[in-house]
Amino acid sequence: MNIPNNLKYTESHEWLRIEGDEAYVGITEFAATHLGDIVFIEIETEGENLDKGESFGTIEAVKTVSDSYMPVGGEVIEVNQAIIDDPALVNKDCFGDGWLIKIKMNNPADADALLDATAYAEIAKD
Length: 126
Known about the structure:
By secondary structure, this protein is an alpha+beta fold. The chain has one domain (8-107): CATH 2.40.50.100. The protein has 4 helices and 9 strands. The strands form 2 sheets. It has a 6-stranded antiparallel sheet. Strands 4-6-7 form a 3-stranded antiparallel sheet. Strand 2 and strand 3 (22-27) form a beta hairpin.
């Protein structure tokens, strides 16, 4: 399983790629694989300031619907239109073009409390 070292992770299988005080958020390969074929993504939180752990949207796969949660508090400043148009992009490239949202973090230091790749690998064991 691919677990990039340059990202931070949550126990609920979201990843965070930090760029200054902004960050990209997506779901991990583990989550995408376990969800199966993703057919619909709904994210209606653009412009909202959400707390860590709050749901920012839902991902619908063939057999289930799953919430996606904020890894840190912040404002949702962009939704990836590409995954709205083609939800399967998350299955194909979850760490690249399949990112879900871009946020402006309320406190970038909050990311220090997230898991690194090694710690996440322990959680993502099958």
